[in-house]
Design goal:
It is a single chain. The protein is α+β, with helices and mostly antiparallel strands. It is about 45% helix and about 25% strand. A hairpin with a 2-residue loop joins strand 15 and strand 16 (about 400-410). Helix 6 (about 120-145) packs antiparallel against helix 7, helix 7 packs antiparallel against helix 10 and helix 10 (about 270-305) packs parallel to helix 14 (about 415-445). It is elongated, with a radius of gyration of 41 Å.
């Protein structure tokens, strides 16, 4: 062997492991790094065969050693195993062997270097695992945008958690309405029949309670040895050893939990906790989006139903129906004594309160002690005695007047922020609807107040209705700009909201026109009008609002100009088309025609409904007349009355022909100047 002193001096302080074998595989030299790996000194290693010193690693080392001996070529390879000095801990080394020659070129042995890449490989593995977790979270987020079904999304979430983290169990838990337990909403690994049916009580010392209250991840490495929390029977029955749970939080309120669990003891890392929180955040966003869409649909229905009647009792019934069971188990509408007296309502038909709260109040626990000056003490104690556990009191105000209040109460449901916000929105809209009904009630109670009511209602409702229409238009623009964020159902609901708001606006304009017509203050703005274009616009509005209606159009071959007030004509045509849609019968077919006859323009609207009973025809254009029959139609009874007055102001008239069982045709005759277009 050559003198190794020079080699030894160079390698002694190297951070890399260096070793020198003779051709028989015996150690000739090892530096301190190798001594540390092997757990032995040089004196104990020199001249000993490596096969004896590292029998577990030699099967990986020997093929490379033989390769160098036989080919005289260097070789680089990986070795994975336990270092003799650290039993139980696996290492990853990058090893290089190369031949050592004597002065005469004779092969004297094999030199080797070893670099411990354990931490680098661990870091790479951690990085790959994080990338896998991030990819799983991103994919779930994409699917959340594409699929509105929360059940499918939760099923996918637990499947991704279980496969990515390689655990035996995964679950999504949802708080029950009373907030005292969690429902196993979705899961992987649990016994058949448990998912969707099993509830877990939230014990005071349970880890799920801590996670929900602290809004943080909770882990346990060994359930049998866990001393901080109680041991849930569901986990014990499934022989769970380790687990981690993170809360699903929406607007600072807990919705439930996401958790993963394993039968074998395992230490969950911070990366694992971050992954679960990412999945929980995706679910929270999807749930909140679903709730927002539900709220849009709900308020669309609220607007339509509250606008369906101006009768006070019917309006209050609508408010109760909209609140129960959507928001509470019971809904009470109390009118203030002052309002009841002013409106002349019968006390035995309504709840009347002498004292009315000015601000909303929420009681998460009706059994809790009340403050000495609580204005709602009487209602709270009454609801508590009736067996209700939570409630909220919402004042109703309109036009600066306190109308009363709404009391909502539940027996087994918690009052979440979302529910109280929606309840406040209902109270605001109910206030306007009840105020409208009160005004109408007053108007019908005395004919001398009727004109005042029409004028006040028209002007006072314009502002909130404009806000409603503006809000609906804003929603429609947002849906058009970002259709992927909304579903087709939401677009249809918003379109319905726009149509109903437009209908209500036309009703208000009808009231205002009536007042002006009867007081002789109506103003006309005659000018040249293309009736074909005007009618086409109205047809488009009808088709948008009523897509199921079949509307046939008949126009003359050559367009003409008619000198008239186009907006007043539009009001009349809108009313006639609305009536045709309302009474058009099962066929839903309407015919709209335009003709010019002897210097007159004639607009005809024909439906194929049941027709007008002969007894009603003589009264059709009377004020507040609504036909009888088996089912009293909705409406104010002013439409045709106002249209006839308006037609006469335009120098024309409205005629009609109707036959029971065959439908009705209305004709608007415009006795105005007609000239070629």
């Amino acid at each position: 062997m050559p003198d190794a002193s020079t080699y030894q001096a160079l390698m002694r302080d190297s951070p890399v492991g260096h070793v020198l074998y003779d051709t028989a595989g015996r150690y000739v030299y090892v530096n301190p790094v190798v001594e540390q790996i092997l757990g032995r000194s040089s004196a104990e290693l020199l001249q000993r065969p490596a096969a004896e010193v590292v029998p577990d690693l030699w099967p990986q080392l020997e093929p490379a050693f033989r390769h160098v001996i036989e080919t005289r070529e260097r070789i680089e390879f990986d070795v994975v195993g336990e270092a003799p000095a650290e039993p139980g801990r696996r290492h990853h080394w990058l090893v290089e062997y190369f031949p050592v020659f004597g002065p005469d070129g004779t092969l004297m042995g094999v030199a080797g270097t070893s670099i411990d890449r354990t931490e680098a490989r661990r870091a790479q593995a951690d990085l790959a695992r994080r990338e896998q977790q991030q990819e799983a979270t991103a994919q779930l987020g994409l699917h959340a945008l594409e699929d509105r079904d929360l059940g499918r999304l939760m099923d996918e979430a637990v499947e991704r958690l279980a496969s990515t983290l390689e655990v035996d169990f995964a679950r999504v838990m949802e708080l029950t309405p009373d907030g005292r337990s969690l429902l196993l909403r979705a899961g992987v690994g649990w016994r058949p029949g448990l998912v969707g049916h099993t509830t877990v009580p939230i014990d005071s010392d349970s880890h799920v309670r801590f996670a929900l209250e602290a809004r943080t991840a909770v882990t346990f490495d060994d359930l049998d040895a866990e001393a901080r929390f109680s041991r849930p029977p569901l986990l014990l029955d499934h022989e769970v050893a380790s687990g981690i749970s993170v809360p699903i939080v929406i607007y600072h309120e807990p919705y439930g939990l996401v958790g993963v669990y394993s039968r074998e003891p395992r230490i969950f890392t911070q990366d694992d906790a971050n992954f679960l929180q990412g999945i929980a955040n995706v679910l929270a966003s999807a749930i909140e989006r679903a709730r927002s869409e539900e709220a849009i649909r709900y308020f669309s229905r609220v607007g339509v139903e509250l606008a369906s009647s101006l009768d006070l009792e019917a309006t209050i019934d609508v408010v109760r129906r909209l609140a129960v069971p959507e928001l509470a188990d019971v809904c009470e509408v109390h009118l203030s004594a002052e309002v009841a007296a002013t409106a002349g309502v019968e006390p035995d038909r309504f709840l009347v309160a002498d004292t009315v709260p000015r601000t909303p109040s929420t009681y998460a626990d009706l059994g809790a002690a009340l403050g000495p000056s609580d204005p709602n003490r009487g209602d709270v104690e009454r609801l508590r005695k009736a067996g209700f556990s939570s409630g909220t009191i919402l004042p109703m105000e309109a036009r600066g007047r306190n109308l009363g209040y709404i009391a909502l109460a539940s027996k087994e449901r918690r009052l979440y922020r979302r529910r109280t916000v929606i309840a406040g929105g209902l109270a605001s809209r109910a206030s306007l609807a009840i105020d409208n009904a009160l005004l109408f009630e007053q108007a019908e109670s005395a004919s001398r107040l009727r004109e005042t009511f029409i004028s006040v209602a028209s002007h006072e409702l314009r502002s909130p209705l404009s806000n409603l229409i503006g809000f609906a238009d804003l929603l429609a623009m947002q849906i058009e700009a970002e259709p992927e964020q909304f579903g087709s159902d939401i677009a249809m609901e918003v379109a319905t909201l726009q149509a109903e708001a437009s209908r209500m606006r036309r009703t208000l304009e009808l009231f205002l026109s009536l007042s002006q017509l009867e007081h002789g203050t109506i103003s006309l703005a005659p000018g040249p009008v293309h009736l074909e274009e005007l009618l086409a616009d109205e047809v488009a509005e009808v088709r948008l609002a009523h897509p199921g209606v079949e509307l046939e159009e008949r126009y003359p071959s050559s367009a003409r100009l008619v000198v008239t007030d186009g907006e007043r004509v539009r009001e009349i045509v809108q009313n006639l088309l609305d009536n045709a849609v309302k009474y058009g019968g099962a066929s839903g077919r309407i015919e709209l025609g335009l003709a010019y006859d002897d210097g007159q323009a004639v607009i005809s609207v024909r439906d194929h409904g049941p027709g007008i009973p002969a007894a009603d025809q003589a009264h059709l254009f009377e004020r507040f007349f609504r036909g009888g029959g088996a089912k009293r139609p909705q409406g104010t009874g002013l439409g045709l009355y106002v249209c006839q007055l308006m037609a006469r102001e335009l120098g024309g008239a409205i005629e009609f022909e109707s036959e029971e069982g065959r439908g009705t045709e209305f004709r608007l005759l415009l006795g105005t100047e007609v000239e070629p277009g």
